[in-house]
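Entry 14: structure prediction run for Endoplasmic reticulum oxidoreductin. Input pasted below.
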Amino acid sequence: MKLQEENETKDEISLLREEKERRRIKKQWELKIMGKCIKWLIYVEIVALIISTINYILLEKEFHYEGIVEDSCQDLQTLKNINEQIFPLLDELSYKKYFKIFRVNLENDCPFGIGEYICTSKKCVICTCNSSEIPSNWLSPQSWPINNPKDDFAFWDSERYLQPSEWIWHVEDVENDKGVYVDLKLNPEAFTGYQGQHIWDVIYKENCYQGSIAEMCKEKRALNKLISGLHTSISTQLSEFYVDLKTNKTYPNYSLYFQRVGNHPERIKNLFFLYSVLFRAIILATPGIQSYDINSLSFEDDLRSKQLLNQILALSNSQCSRPFDEQQFFKQITFEQKKDYQRYIHNISRIMDCVECQKCKVFGKMQTYGLGTALKILFSESPSEFSGRLKRNELVALINTFAKVSSSVNSIDLMYERRGNYHFNLIITIIIIGSVLISFMIVMRILYKDLDRKIQKMFLGMPGEDKCEKVGEKKKRD
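Run finished. Output tokens:
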């Protein structure tokens, strides 16, 4: 019996020793792991802080508005300063009824062999205006372009040779039975998910002068830069009004902007070149625009539209009357080059008929039409007289195109600021999250140690190794 009791006592002591050893090893292992986690968190935070801080330091915080716009008469900084005054007026004007409704033909067939890229997003679809939403005076026969003389239609007859004095522009035809009215504000230009790079590839290959820009004469170089500027403006608008197709939320996507525009300074400079050309066209058209009958059958709206127009024209003529010198620039342009300009702009409008996204098509055709109208004014022998004969759709296209380009210029600083804020906030976020995680792990380690001490105190009242040995010796003596 005594021998059996001694063996049982030894077994209990062994079990207690093994349990205590296991608990000690487990505790050391857990504390060691927690310590390593804290060290790694500190290392990761330090590395992340160093990388993000270096990126922030090396990041360009703003675009450098230095030098004169190539082939223009103004420097970048002056145009930027002027735009800061004009943009709010243009933006408000573009929301007025007379200027926000544009007539466009969406049923033209694609005349080119361009691959089909179907737009599956609902954002591609537009809502056209009902006849009840259109002022009755716009629907009168006198306002239909189809009833105007052919010369007013600015048609280019390629079957016979025209004398330079007969030369006139042709950009866009709107047939009565196909043209629809679109509210540009109810259908705002925004990212739709449509990938239209194949359209731009055709535009650049088929409607730009080929070869090195540096080796081109300025007349040819100018057309390429105008198209590049238009592309830059459209890309900027799609980035500024980016729509997340999953959440349907609209927000400025600075990452997309720098991918398409911001990382290419020459594109921003081409945007300013386009701005200077449109700006000069509006200045030249001042007499005609001031005498234009702004009538949407909404007295207050039309009155405000005229006030805004007069403010824009006054600012334009007082701040910078000649951002682009068309007389000096085009004095050596040949009649054939003029035809090239007209043909290329018209072809771009026709290429826009191949765009499967309705919204993209509307704004592409509208801005091409606006650029064509500006060039018509600049090429005319008497711009002030010619501007008085602008059709409503031409004036609407010109103003809205200038508003879009002005908005794109305004977005430059905003995009740089947003990118800078993101990287700065990233540094702050790393500091906060890293500090919270490290603090949490340190507190957990302290609590764990404290809990372990409390558990050990609980075991003090239980038979340990010494007590068990004494119990065994006592049993032997008995």
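Notes: Residues 58-428 form one domain. Will compare against the previous run tomorrow.
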